[in-house]
Every structure is written in C-alpha cells, then in structure tokens.
Design brief:
Helices cover 39% and strands 15% of the residues. With 194 residues, the chain is an alpha/beta fold. It has one domain: Rossmann fold (3-Layer(aba) Sandwich).
Amino acid sequence: MSLQREDSRSKKIIFVSSCLLNTNNKVRDLARYGGFSLDVVKILHKYDLGMQQMDCPETLYLGIQRWQHTKNLYDNVGFRRFCRQIAVRNVDYMESYVQMGYQTVAVLSCNGSPTCGVTLTSHNDDWGGPPKDLDYGDALVEGTGVFIEELQKEIMERGILMPPFYGLNLDEPAKPFEKILSEFEQFIADLMEA
C-alpha cells in the first residue's frame, strides 16, 4: 500500500515568461496592461495549469530602466552565459516534475522580445552606441530570442521531452489584444485535447 496520497493537483505546468505575469519587467512603452493580464491567467486556470514563472534575464542583467535592445545587442558571450544559468534552473524544475510524473505542457513567452521571443524577435544593426529615437516595431524579425535559444539547448542536452513553445504577440502594437488572447486560448485548447 502506497503511503503517498493523491490530491487535487493537475500535475500539468506551463512555464511563463516573467513579464507576462508581471508587466513591470517590460521595457518602458511596451506594457499592454497594468500588472498582469487576468485574461491570460483565466485561460491557464480554465485548463488547470500550474504556472511556473521564469526569471526575466533582461531585468536581472540590465535593470528596470534599461533601454530597449534588439537581439543583436544581447547576442554576446556574457549575456548568453547569464541566460544559460537561468535556463539551467528552469530545466531543473522541469526535470524534477518529470521525475514525479508531472507534465510541462508548454512554455509561454513573449514574441518580439530579443530574449524571450519564440517565432518573432528583433534585430537592427542601427541599434547600438548612444540612444537614438528608433522604432522598435521596425526591428521585429522572424527568429528566436537569446534566452529561449538557451532554454531549448538545455532541455535538449538533458534529454527531456521538448514542450511546445508559444509566444504571445504582445510586442506587435497593431494586433488587437482580443485576437492575441483568442489565438492563445486555441493553442492551449488544442494542446489539452491532444
């Protein structure tokens, strides 16, 4: 007879970029809501997903008042090493969950971010040197952010099943927030049906 009793936990976790649960970590002018999006949290709650908040590499490395950066400014040995350290801690959690039969359902991140973009990041060779009045929207390109690259490498090196990665398109100001939420909820619904 097992001494371990079951309780109500779903044993399903989604790893979430820090800025999605605390928009105060975003660079100025890019926050689309006050503190966190209740709508995003409601979607996760609807499917009984536990949330594991990942640290914000940008905030920890450069602080809250940092200038906007593009991926090419962050793509250096020192910052990658820093991101890898954060990735190691997060994959430690994933591995611990796997050992107990839990499932990392997905990694939810912020598309357009130079560090946390999944399919959309930023690059512009004009960024660098003294701050200039540049439009971040003009720097958005297809690609993956530095931290997400390091996180995926760490998962692969450990031999853990790679969870699906999803980037909320919050850094695309022209895209209505309702459409962003609708696409995200469809992604989660499809995952939970699989």
